[in-house]
Amino acid sequence: MASRRKTPKNKTRHKKKQPAKSRIFFIGIAGASGCGKSYFTKLLKDRLVKNGISAAAIQVISCDSYYKTFLNNDGTPRQLESKETNTYVKTPEYIKYNWDHPDAVDLPLLETHLKALENGEDVVVPEFDFNSSIQTTDTRRRIRAAKVKIVIVEGLFTFYLESLRRLFDLRLFISSDMEVCLVRRLLRDREKRDSDYDRTINQYIDHVKPAFCAFIEPTRIFAEFTIHNSYNSKYTTSMNIVCEYVISKVKK
Predict the structure, then answer these.
(1) pLDDT tens digit string along 91-102?
(2) Largest CA distance in the chain
(3) Gap between the Cα atoms of 53 and 59, Å rounded
(4) Which tens digit of pLDDT belongs to each residue from 28-84?
């Protein structure tokens, strides 16, 4: 009697396809010190939220967070001068230090973090204390890549490195009259950065404006949009255009 040959069952198990991770949309915002980058960024985030993007899905990263810890010539950080007023010793090296040069900011670390987020990896954004001039790391500042749809990066040197600016899907340059920028900087430094008017003006003449001309203004050509900010600008038209464009890309 002929034996019946059993056909072997296909034991190959089909793996369930994992849903593709939603791609993060990166926005870069650059411009002079005091031009209104942070203000524009806040308005943009608020407008995106009003248009249905979850606030938790929008992360803002400031280049200021990536300032390197200041060290004196002997390798020591700034020393606390008064605990009551939280002021630190202004050594000659500190007074002469150029905070408006791209070397003062750890741009390669920022680039590494953006690439990590792009690859679906979490990152911990550093924090810079402008009183002590020390950069620290706090795990509470962790960005969960899986929860993010939009990352907005704003800062002086956002477009300075070619490898960094190529990561952005949208690049915006905020322009403003230099006199307006100086007034804003005077007010900010006085209120938030333990600086008197004379020091701010000297910094502006010696470092801020020359750095803008050398390192920031030339990067304007890499922006898709240049947005002018007058003293009390509400950005009505530009905000409508930018917001509509971002939403069209994110909701695809």
Answers:
(1) 999 989 999 999
(2) 108
(3) 11
(4) 999 999 898 999 999 999 999 999 999 999 999 999 999 999 999 999 999 999 988
> Which of these, 118, 168, 170, lies nearest to 145 by C-alpha position?
118
Q: Which two tokens stand for residue 146?
A: 């899986």
For 28, the token pair is 């870069």
Token digits of residue 190: 């006085």
- Token look-up 């190529």 returns 166
Rounded Cα distance, 33 and 185, in Å: 7
What's the rounded Cα separation, in Å, for the pair 94 and 120? 39
Distance CA 92, CA 72 (A): 9
Helix boundaries (H) for 13-90: 37-50
What is the arrangement of strands in the sheet containing 58-62, beginning at the earlier edge strand? 58-62, 150-154, 25-31, 170-175, 225-228
- Number of C-alpha atoms within 13 angstroms, CB side, residue 73? 5
Phi, psi of 151 (to 5 degrees): -120, 125
pLDDT digit string, tens, across residues 4-39: 445 445 544 544 444 445 689 999 999 999 898 999
Task: Find the helix or strand (DSSP H, E) in which 175 lies.
Answer: strand 170-175
CA-CA distances (angstroms) from residue 183 to 103, 127, 178, 217, 229?
Answer: 25, 26, 9, 19, 14
Domains and CATH numbers, the chain: 25-250 (3.40.50.300)
